[in-house]
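Here is the promised in-class demo. Please do not try to memorize the tokens; focus on the logic of going from shape to residues.
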């Protein structure tokens, strides 16, 4: 299976520390050797970097680890191929335009039969079930909401219903962003941690790297990290339940957490 990493923050923040922990799982401490990608938002647009090679051995990934690109929303992924060959077109996260903004998507799991779902406006570039699911999901959003809804909660409810449908195909752990919100939906493994004042020291699980966030932040900063598995030791991560979706904006979860019993449009 693949691993996911996302960030939502209330001020532009770099993800060097967390991406260091994720990237070593791409071929060093984990088996995810079939590509990696990361997308950083700057307003409505995102800049994305992809490579069909192990992130733990990549000079390109090392550049991203060391270069403090600041963003309020980040989506990243290291791949262990289960569907589709190893190539650039099949690396996550995938990006498409809707409502004049970039939408970004990364997925962990297998979705047998998802390619039987017909597509309309959006078409895959690669051959993964993940990208097909993303195109289907955006088609549905575009049809239901030709323009951005006035109430974000109506979009969140609709996305939750789509995620529940896709979960019916198999394992659907998802990170999705519309440039403002970060949607995190869990089928099997997904967790998150919010860091805010008073900040302390964090240490990565997969490599001997630590950071004192008090030296890197201001008292007003709020940063949430979402990952497939905890990235640090001696910190409390919130493990999501199967069928749960949390939507983050500016580092904080939305008032409503969607659970398996939540109604869908």
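The designed amino acids, position by position:
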């Amino acid at each position: 299976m693949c691993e996911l990493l996302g960030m939502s923050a209330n001020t532009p923040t770099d993800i060097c520390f967390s991406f260091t922990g994720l990237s070593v799982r791409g071929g060093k401490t984990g088996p995810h050797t079939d590509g990696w990608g990361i997308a950083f938002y700057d307003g409505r647009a995102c800049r994305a970097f992809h490579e069909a090679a192990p992130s733990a051995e990549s000079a390109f990934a090392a550049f991203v680890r060391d270069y403090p690109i600041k963003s309020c929303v980040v989506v990243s992924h290291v791949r262990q191929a289960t569907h589709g060959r190893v190539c650039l077109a099949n690396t996550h996260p995938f990006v498409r335009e809707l409502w004049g903004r970039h939408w970004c998507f990364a997925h962990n799991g297998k979705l047998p039969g998802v390619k039987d779902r017909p597509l309309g406006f959006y078409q895959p570039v690669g051959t993964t079930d993940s990208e097909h699911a993303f195109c289907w999901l955006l088609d549905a959003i575009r049809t239901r909401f030709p323009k951005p809804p006035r109430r974000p909660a109506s979009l969140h409810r609709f996305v939750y219903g789509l995620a529940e449908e896709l979960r019916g195909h198999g394992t659907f752990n998802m990170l999705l962003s519309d440039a403002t919100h970060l949607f995190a939906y869990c089928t099997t493994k997904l967790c998150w941690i919010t860091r805010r004042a008073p900040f302390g020291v964090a240490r990565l699980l997969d490599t001997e790297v630590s950071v004192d966030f008090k030296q890197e932040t201001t008292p007003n900063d709020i940063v949430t990290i979402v990952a497939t598995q905890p990235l640090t030791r001696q910190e409390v991560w919130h493990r999501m339940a199967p069928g749960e979706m949390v939507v983050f904006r500016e580092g904080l979860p939305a008032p409503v957490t969607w659970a398996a019993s939540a109604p869908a449009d």
